[in-house]
TrEMBL record:
PROSITE patterns: PROKAR_LIPOPROTEIN. This is Molybdopterin-dependent oxidoreductase. The chain crosses the membrane at residues 12-36, 75-95, 116-136, 148-167. Pfam families: Oxidored_molyb. It comes from Amycolatopsis pithecellobii. Keywords: Membrane, Transmembrane, Transmembrane helix. One of its GO terms (molecular function) is oxidoreductase activity.
Amino acid sequence: MRPPRFRSPLRGPWLTSVLGAVLLGCLPLVIVTGLLDYVAYGPGQGIPADVGPLHLPAFDWPTRPSWLFRLTQGLHVGLGLVLVPVVLAKLWSVIPKLFTRTPGRALVHALERTSLLLLVGSILFEIVTGLLNIQYDYAFGFSFYTGHYLGAWVFIASFVVHVALKLPRMVRALRSRSLRAELTTPGTAPESPDDTGLVAADPAPPTLSRRGFLGVVGGGSLLVAVLTAGQTIGGPLRDLALLLPRGREPGDGPNGFPINRTAAAAGITVAGWRLVLNGAVERTLTRDDLLALPQYTARLPIACVEGWSTVQTWTGVRLRDLAALAGVTQPSSAHVKSIEDGPFASATLTAGQVTDPDALLALRVNGADLSLDHGYPARIIVPALPGVHCTKWVRSLDFPDPR
């Protein structure tokens, strides 16, 4: 089979390098925020599952500032989505390279193609799994957390190798033309042929200038930003989050804010509910017993792995007060168990998360009782804690007795 003929006069080292520079400046932030989110989720809790030597060093995820996880997860998902048009444009710009050969350099050619395959394959895997996780409820036949995390490390390794190999060439290409001149030039003349294989030998007549091409890509990224930013920023922009259906407001009233799992989906029944506290002593409390205890109110965000977040006013009993009721005055941790089954049925909180003055077993939100979908009779809310660990429908709290 003969390789296809790529004749666009837009392609060339300069255009590819401009797109590459944008990705080089932004993708490290996506990588860092993703790894921080991995630490926030706490590998010891099984999300993601055992990943062998790829585990990062563990440390206690802080509770301050309270919007920390909201920021890292919002940047990771939001910026990742905004870069999708740039990634696709970059892949379009280098398609001819997939069909070129390097005579006499078979080994080098094979290594380059292998690294390119891993780079392209891993970034497409990350984009597709990330988008499916946002759009659909648990759409995978495998753990999204584990798959996305392992895919991220394949991408990181191939990205580092690719940058090391291509950075000098990219710098030379960027210096070959003026960005300002290209953005003010309505026409398009093909770039000078070189050994990259990107410049067409017999370019077709232009149908779009480089300025227009960059405008289309930038406009696509801007449109994605407009249609996604509201999931994190909130306010009037939240109704514009058309690409993130579960990040939009689901209704009105005190409980009218997003959820990622309904009570019906979790198979929840709360008849005869009691909360069990385990520590130096065991205590069993009804919801009325909890309401009779000192109540505290905190305005705190809750953020989800899907990228959406919201800030609400929560009221309930401090976790450290519940630890004291169980006879543990200096809790080192807390193990939370829910009525529901499955991977989100339990969570482990660190000492700092338990003792934070705003860490609550929430009973009410925005002045009203929690709805069943939001965790009634009681749920966890801790500053800066990932939403998946703000366990709903809590049935027990275990505080290890230091004695």
